Amino acid sequence: MSRTLRPLPAPGRFLRVDGVPLHVLTEGRGPVCVLSGGLGMAWFDWDAVAALLAPHRTVVRFDRPGLGLSAPAPEPPTLAAEADRIVHLLDALGHFGPATVVGHSLAGFHAEAFARRHPDRCAGLLLVDASIEDNPRPRLPRALRTAWAGGVAGALSAAGLPRALGPAARRLIGRASTVGTHPPHPWERAGYRTSRVARACVLENTTYPYQAAELAALRPDHPLPAVPVTVLAAYDGSETAGRLRWLERQRGLAAELGGRFAVAAPAGHLVMADVPESVARAVLDLSGTGHDATVADRP
């Protein structure tokens, strides 16, 4: 890839996990905390949160297959594979003890499944404006939907749309999902103009209802471990029925998981961009160190 597309040296390193070269970035010191973003997101979306946590935590960020700088996986994503990927990544890094996992949006499914499938490896759970599906029932066979999605991704790539429109689409989504003004990241153009990332985004979107159904099936027979849980909901300050209903659904998720409910405001869905301090404080509060460690509020 040319210098114009890679303005900076790639941070972190690449580790082969489950046969896929994953881009991984580890920073800081202390207990381990894994940050996993929502649908189609990359490691750099957590920059501000990681900077706040690094003095107090060993912060692990990674790109799921096909996203960011990671290579694509041979198979479409499943909930079990994504939950297990977190464990296998920690093993590859030499972190064999319990870790706190932070899951945003779609990755909230992955984080909760990680805790339920690997209770001995979970030290705490933070769900940031996490996805919620009350009664997921995908109507079409998974193989049919994923085959269709692969065809769509191929057609988009053949038409050159990721290269032409990918970075602009990413910026538009970012603006719609935040209440603040955030400049584009230097690595945004390098990733979101590729067919690799476009395909990964299409497949994550297509498999979303199936992952939701997997989680619903997992919950009855795989209880959460006795660890602290927080659900952190975004609130932009509006009083619309939809926004208030979303807050109540997030509160209900916290009650269902036996966890604490908190609100990050003013914030859009990309909470880590609008109020990274709220995310960092919620992580530290999980272990009771939030009042001992300093996480500055914005002026």
UniProtKB/TrEMBL annotation:
Pfam families: Abhydrolase_6 (PF12697). It comes from Streptomyces nigrescens. InterPro entries: AB_hydrolase_1, AB_hydrolase_fold, Carboxylesterase_BioH. The keyword Hydrolase applies. GO terms for molecular function: hydrolase activity. It comes from the Bacteria. This is Alpha/beta hydrolase. The lineage of its organism: Bacteria, Bacillati, Actinomycetota, Actinomycetes, Kitasatosporales. Signal peptide: none annotated. Keywords: Hydrolase. Residues 38-282 form the AB hydrolase-1 domain.
